[in-house]
Specification:
Elements: E1 3-4, H1 8-34, H2 41-61, E2 68-69, H3 70-89, H4 103-112, H5 115-134, H6 138-142, H7 146-226, H8 230-262, E3 266-269, H9 270-284, E4 289-293, E5 302-305, H10 309-326, E6 331-338, E7 342-348, H11 356-361, H12 375-386, E8 390-395, E9 401-408
Parallel strand pairs: 4-6
Antiparallel strand pairs: 1-2, 3-5, 6-7, 7-9, 8-9
Length: about 425
């Protein structure tokens, strides 16, 4: 079974059929009251009315978005061929200059349907034209007004060219858009699989790290008891402090993982977030000067986040410090911009900047280079996106790179 991603193309076809019904009624009125052709007008009006009624039913059926199968499209195009063939049969048959409009369902089917079904539509169109031709009376050819016939054929060509240009181009554009959406979904799925793999590995690593840390802490306590000098006491105290910090980080990671797993997200005030970032920067990057600017944010403004936001931002700050150090700079600028709707955090380093390839790939996939694999940016991007924010990377005009994090302010508290 051939499955379309949505019934949007069917909705377009139904809307276009309303236009064709209007054109058909206009042609009948012109033929009856202006050109005064002798045709089976009650029958023709009945056919157009039946087409309009069925199209209203189709519009009601396809009014809501859903997946559609190719057989539905085949049925719609077959219905178009059937109604148009009936109209032609009662208005001159194959001598009608608009008979080549039977090509339109064939053209649409060739663009939208799988090859077997497209061939079936082409066969239906050819069969309809052949039936009109063979049902033509020999006397009809002698009674035709050839001048009007040629003018009608010319007008038919113009209309066919315009309709094919508009309809087929629109359908192709829609199909290309759907293919782009499918490709984007595949890339997003691949990225989420990478993030899931990294998360599983990190969880396993944290579990395995707990035992060695506990053992190291016991050994340090024993060494503290056996210390014989003041220098050894200070060294053991420093080592114990670092081990306690590792255990604290491990507990924070477990709490964060549990909070993410439970899907708990709470309002976080922007002022509070900035203060946490300042504290973490002083604690983790003592050799780097962080310049925070425009931090006079509204105390009442907040964003919706969980415990994973802070580590995601710290990853970006860590990358910024490394980039600045590679360029022998010891400074990172952090600026905050708030508006009525958005909170933006801009992290600028003073490193060599990012290459064009890195700007495209970083955050979307792992990038192997001498600087690392881009794992931190990948995880930060996934976390920020999961929380409803966006992450943009670009080079600063005066040198270095900028990581721009944007969140919509909480509508309740913002």
């Amino acid at each position: 079974m051939w499955l379309f991603q949505s019934n949007r193309q069917l909705q377009q076809l139904v809307h276009l059929r309303f236009l064709f019904v209007v054109l058909q009624l206009s042609a009948l009125l012109i033929s009856q009251y202006w050109l005064q052709y002798d045709l089976y007008y009650p029958t023709l009006y009945g056919i157009v009315s039946a087409e309009l009624l069925i199209n209203v039913i189709c519009w009601y059926f396809y009014r809501t978005p859903r997946n559609a199968i190719a057989a539905e499209y085949l049925l719609q195009l077959s219905m178009d061929i059937g109604f148009f063939t009936l109209l032609l049969y009662y208005s001159g048959g194959a001598t009608n200059p608009f008979v080549s409009l039977l090509l339109l369902p064939v053209a649409i089917g060739a663009v939208t349907l799988p090859k077997p079904l497209a061939l079936l539509i082409a066969s239906l169109g050819l069969s309809a034209y052949s039936a009109l031709l063979f049902s033509l009376s020999p006397h009809a050819l002698h009674s035709m007004d050839m001048q009007q016939h040629f003018i009608g054929m010319w007008l038919n060509f113009v209309i066919s060219a315009l309709v094919v240009l508009v309809i087929v181009a629109s359908l192709v554009k829609t199909m290309n858009r759907q293919q782009q959406q499918i490709q984007a979904q595949r890339e997003e799925q691949l990225r989420q699989e990478q993030v899931l793999s990294l998360g599983s590995a990190a969880t396993q690593f944290a579990h395995q790290l707990a035992t060695p840390l506990a053992t190291a802490h016991l050994i340090v306590e024993e060494l503290q008891e056996e210390a014989t000098s003041e220098t050894q006491d200070k060294e053991m105290d420093e080592l114990s402090t670092q081990l306690n910090l590792c255990r604290q980080r491990l507990h924070e990671f477990r709490d964060m993982a549990e909070q993410v797993r439970s899907g708990v997200a709470q309002p976080m005030y922007s002022k509070q977030l900035i203060e946490l970032l300042k504290e973490e920067c002083q604690l983790n990057f003592a050799t780097t000067e962080f310049v925070f600017s425009d931090t006079e944010t509204n105390n009442e403004s907040s964003i919706v986040a969980d415990a994973s936001l802070l580590p995601a931002l710290m990853n970006l700050l860590h990358n910024a410090t490394q980039s600045s150090h590679r360029n022998r700079k010891q400074q990172v600028h952090v600026s905050v911009q708030t508006s009525k709707r958005f909170f933006k955090l801009l992290i600028r380093d003073f490193g060599p900047g990012l290459s064009k390839d890195s700007l495209v790939q970083l955050g979307n996939q792992l990038v192997v280079s001498e600087k690392g694999m881009g794992m931190g940016v990948l995880l930060s991007h996934a976390t920020i996106e999961r929380l409803g924010g966006t992450l943009k990377l670009y080079n600063h005009p005066d040198g270095g790179a900028v990581a721009e994090v944007s969140f919509e302010l909480d509508k309740v508290n913002g």
